[in-house]
Amino acid sequence: MRKTLAGLTAVAVLTTACAGGGARGSGAVAEPPKKDDKLTLTVFSKYSDREEREVTKALNTFKAKFPNIEIKHEGNQDDDKITGAVRGGNPPDVAMTFMTDNLGQFCSSGSWQNLKGYLERDKIDLNVIPQAVRDYTDFKGTRCALPMLADVYGLFYNKDQFAAAGITEVPKTTDQLLEAAKRLTQKNPDGSIKVAGFLPSMPFYNNQAQIWAPSWGARYLDANGKSALAGSAEWKAMFEFQRKLVDFYGYDNLERFRAGLGQEYSADHAFQQGKLAMIIDGEYRTAFIADQSPNISFGTAPFPHSPARPDREGGAFATGTIIGIPKGAKNPGAAWELIKHMTLETDTLVDLSNAIKNVPSTDAALKDPRLQVTPQFKTFIDLYGGGKLWSNPPTPIGDAHLKAVNDFAAEWQAGRVANLDEGLKKVDQQINDALAQSGR
């Protein structure tokens, strides 16, 4: 699963895609297919390459229940393509996305159908899924998606580089992370960076404000649903941590180093190449390492927490793949049966988790003895069950609030923001204006 930030233009397109869809009603309920019905279900997802092949295998296990239903899985379909298909009157029957941040728009606009009627008809108990994960598939009481698998984010560290630097304990606080990063950093003779202990650049790989924020206890919105960054001690502490590490490396030096780093989902990933000693990443990185860089000696741990927030020890950011029925789907009844199969069937979740190393999202799948759990993967299983997961608040403006903060982080790290508090006030105003304009 991947986390990417869509641009504000894409969000604007999404916001106007299907207004007036009536998503807040109970949702229409279509009859399930008969055992011998012949039809084709089209599924859009963003998966590619190895993961796309494994998800296709999981989708095709549905044929054990409905042998005459064919599954047409089309990978590399992002949210813009899904929304364009809905607007064009030719949507897939089932849509999957990694962009949980667009959930609020999908639900409020009606571009994804309300699943309430199906859940009630089939007496589905969603308490088998942790609250934080349920939260990112619901928007103000409208549930237009279910979680298929979850992503949980933690610390990856290179054991050989730790040993060479004489570091015997994994950092537990962000102060310890800062000092470890300095000790792990290696310079070339000309002063350029050879190995960075921890890269503070945002947004880059999974250095994104929303993924860091839970470790500092930093919330995006207040109780009234307004942006609440300015005046927040937590956001201030997070950005000050970032600035300390940027100052240690030197911004220009960091930019030159970052420009030479490999693609995130290739074997050239900087951690897999030994150019980053520590990173924040999701559990799925364990599968990429096993497949692309099996000789790396690495460990995983909860991402360090702010010393001012000891309650965030053992906490983590969580997101994941969500799956729903787009507006206008040709086979909604069969689509719902496929969604149940992919999100609630223990065997399906366990097999898919074993294949692509995402965290299975139900209690039964987590406890299944067939679940393959390496020591590195166990970290994320423990975080998932630890009761301290945070997810992004769904909003009707998609990921515009996240993009605004990451854009600010890029300006801040470059030294182009003179006053942190004043800069955050401007971000608050930008987000609150967008929320007001959404009309939802």
TrEMBL record:
Keywords: Signal, Transport. Residues 1-19 form the signal peptide. It is found in: Cell envelope. InterPro entries: Bact_solute-bd_prot1, SBP. GO terms for cellular component: cell envelope. Pfam families: SBP_bac_8. The keyword Signal applies. The keyword Signal applies. SUPFAM superfamilies: Periplasmic binding protein-like II. Part of a binding-protein-dependent transport system for a sugar. Belongs to the bacterial solute-binding protein 1 family. This is Probable sugar-binding periplasmic protein.
